[in-house]
Amino acid sequence: MTQEYIEIRGARENNLKNVDLRLPKRKINIFTGVSGSGKSSIVFDTIATEAQRQLYENFSMFIRNLLPKFPQPDADAIEKLGMAVVVDQKRLGGGSHSTMGTITDISPVLRVLFSRIGKPWVGYANVFSFNDPQGMCPECSGRGRKLGFDPSKFVDRSKSLREGAIQAPGLVSWEKDMYAHSGFFDVDKKLADYTTGEMDLLLYSGPRKFKLKLGEGSMNATYLGLIEKFERAYIRRDIKTLSERKQRSIMPYLQEQPCPACKGARLNEAALSCRVRNRNIAELSAMEVEELIGFLKEVDDAVAAPMIRTLTERLQHLVDMGLGYLSLNRETDTLSGGESQRVKMVKHLGSSLIDVLYIFDEPSVGLHPRDVYRLNGLLQKLRDKGNTVIVVEHDPDVIRIADHIVDVGPHAGTRGGQIMYEGDLEGLLRTDTLTGRFLKHGLPLKTACRVPRGQLPVTGARVNNLQDINVQIPEGILTVVTGVAGSGKSSLIHHAFLQAYPQAVVIDQSAVGTSTRSNPATYTGTMDLIRKAFAAANHVAASLFSFNSKGACENCQGTGVIYTDLAFLEGVKTPCEVCEGRRYKEEVLAYRLNGKSISDVLEMTVSEAAGFFTEKDIRRKLDTMIEVGLEYLTLGQPLSTLSGGECQRIKLASELHKKGSIYVMDEPTTGLHLSDVGRLIELMNGLVSKGNTVIVIEHNLDVIKNADWIIDLGPEGGHKGGQVLFEGTPEALIKNSRSHTGLFLKAAVEGKDR
Asked: Tens of pLDDT along 560-580?
């Protein structure tokens, strides 16, 4: 059979320089290159955009009006495309009503199962849905949580009522005394010794009449539980109607907590009363996926057989993607970017479609090296069905399975946008490109590790799956926390450690908010300082130099372009005729700083601006951007045009100039090319050299090799993890046969993965 190709001629999106490409169909095509070189411009802005645009043109004008609008890419020709399925790194939203079970369509099948074989029979499938009025808990409307007061802040359990155990805010003395004088309690009994019934009476009781003694007489009074009293006063009314002072005094005591009616199960009593093998649907949804598969396989019922088969098949796909530690009730907006992407992939595994164009954006993000082989198996399975697979990737183990590699470079931004290599892996390894060089030679294992100056202890950690662990995190060195997905790394650092050391500067995986109005200067805070410098030099208000405020061109409102809506067609953007795309009013552009206007400054690259400005605070922020390898970006470049790796580094730059002694980084290598990882390690070492403690959660083997100290969690994910497997140096880890990380680190050092 003759090989067919997707053909691209003269692609000029973003930084692309008239790129011509031929990508073999029904093969795995992997795009490599430094962050910002143009990989995403080819794969997403050119190929994926055109495939989706052409698909949508087949629909009626009415339907097209309701669908996303895709612009025609800037290219001479794009031919022989198929229907595209794009699986990106955008986190799954959806709020509390969207869970892993609903997004993967597993929960609907589970609801049908309960409606067919559950005992007692309570209704059809929608009765088991927390998004349906017939199934949802009436108290929390299916959220499983309610805004409420933390009882631990209202009472001191070490005291009795006589000793002043009631510590609720805003209660006058006679209101506190009423609980002791109600006659319902032993006033000398410590609250810690109360039975469950006594504590419920104290905190949650509804109205009760009693005789309140006043001197020699008494009066009729109404008793209300302490939490019940506050919920009636502040939660079951609009809290915004209270004075600001009262709101400020109450807010510290409010928190989201499990719904008291359904105990977090989200469903009403009828739905929860129905059981399969003595478990209700909420209990099954709370099980880890691997555990749930085992439970379902033991259901012996002829009616249930087709549903069990469908459920176990879909659940097994989650296990195959390294997500067996998650549960169906896990809310989608709590998943990491890597987990979100893998959950999206699961939806396509059971598809019988062929000749589909599957496009993935760094699918290895968040995966331990142990799990990468599962990902490779998925990509190969999609190809073998007769589909074309296109992947943007930096992980060497994923690059190795490519049928065809496209290396984009040579550098980032305006110095990139060219095809450096096309062909197989062996050919790439023979080239002198950055990717070829770094694939052949990994970073060496650190043997001279720094000595800590102290310890930062975390004791008795039991958050999520952590099994009452004690960890000593060394102070003043680079510590890397490793382990398979779901082993408890984030629970240990983001929860247990940060609760004990809240002063730490945290650089997490949260997405950079990208828009046409934000740019490197605004995101890093450099723009505020530049505006002040212009204002001081010209003796005018700083707000004049903001294109989002007083200084904005009135014709385009500071965007620099005029947008024309063309209904179902893609809208047209044209440069503003008044400001000629410079965003500012003419009188603002007349003001100068060292001979340059504010528009001239925004057109400078970071390195040019570092040479132009003499102000120390501006230079410090610009130097941080240079340190993370973003010297080629212009200060005014919209963040919406940056690649994923560039967004990750600009977030690093915005956080690293903050003063602190402890830095926590969560997978900072996300989106970074092999050559950029070396720069990141230099940056971390620079922080340590200044006397800081740096703690990194990471899967990247080059980062792990260069740690001073490693804490490895496992052995597996979920309830099979949460234990400390290893604490020590990289050299000692490769001798540890219990650790998955140790085994892969040893293979990397011995050159088996290079």
From this structure: 888 877 665 666 778 898 998
C-alpha angle 529-530-532 in degrees, rounded to nearest 5: 65
Tell me whether the omega of the peptide bond preceding residue 120 falls within 30 degrees of 0, making it cis: yes
Q: What does the alpha-carbon distance between residue 498 and residue 169 come to, in Å, rounded to a whole number?
A: 27
Residues 606-653: tens digit of each pLDDT: 999 999 999 999 999 999 899 888 888 999 988 887 777 788 788 888
Contact 273, 121 (CB under 8 A): no
**One-letter amino acid of 519:** N
Whole-angstrom Cα distance, residue 334 to residue 98? 10
> DSSP states of 179-246 as a string?
HHHTSSS-TTS-GGG--HHHHHHHHH---EEEEEEETTEEEEEEE--HHHHHIIIIISS-GGGS-HHH
CA-CA distance, 157 to 91, in Å (whole number)? 42
For 460, 481, 588, 648, 697, the CA distances from 666, given in Å and listed in that order, are: 22, 10, 42, 11, 5
Which one-letter amino acid corresponds to residue 293?
Answer: I
What CA–CA distance (Å, rounded) separates 737 from 634?
49
CB atoms within 10 A of CB 725: 20
> What is the separation of C-alpha 639 from the centre of its chain, rounded to a whole number of angstroms?
18
Instruction: Judge contact between 165 and 155, C-beta under 8 A.
Output: yes
Q: Which residues lie across from 166 on neighbouring strands?
A: 155
Contact 709, 728 (CB under 8 A): yes
Q: What is the average pLDDT score of the chain?
A: 89
Question: With contact defined as beta carbons under 8 Å apart, do 113 and 279 qualify?
Answer: no
Kindly report the number of other CB atoms within 10 A of residue 500's CB atom. 14
Q: Report the distance separating Cα 331 and Cα 339, nearest Å.
A: 12
HEC readout, 103-139:
HCCCHHHHHHHHHHHCECCCCCHHHHCCCCCCCECCC
Instruction: Please provide the distance, in angstroms rounded to a whole number, between the alpha carbons at the two ends of the chain.
Output: 34
Give the type of residue at 261: A
CA distance 529 to 506: 24
> Measured at the alpha carbon of residue 577, what is the angle toward residues 575 and 583, in degrees to the nearest 5?
65
**Nearest-10 Cα torsion for 34, 35, 39, 43:** 150
CA proximity to 308, closest of 110, 65, 598:
110
C-alpha distances (whole Å) from 302 to each of 55, 380, 476 are 42, 35, 63
CA dist 36 → 40, 51, 362, 626, 648 (Å): 8, 23, 14, 15, 11
Two tokens, residue 545: 């130099």
Residue 15 CA: distances (Å) to CA of 36, 72, 559, 706, 749: 9, 16, 21, 34, 37
Write out pLDDT tens, residues 309-339. 999 999 998 988 888 899 999 988 878 767 8
C-beta separation of 103 from 343 below 8 A: yes
Whether the Cβ atoms of residue 711 and residue 727 lie closer than 8 Å to each other: yes
Nearest to 369 by CA among 706, 744, 751, 746: 744
Q: What is the pTM (predicted TM-score) of this model?
A: 0.81
Q: Which residues pair with 458 in a beta bridge?
A: 471
Continuous segment of H or E residues that includes residue 296: helix 289-297
Q: Which two tokens stand for residue 676?
A: 């950029």
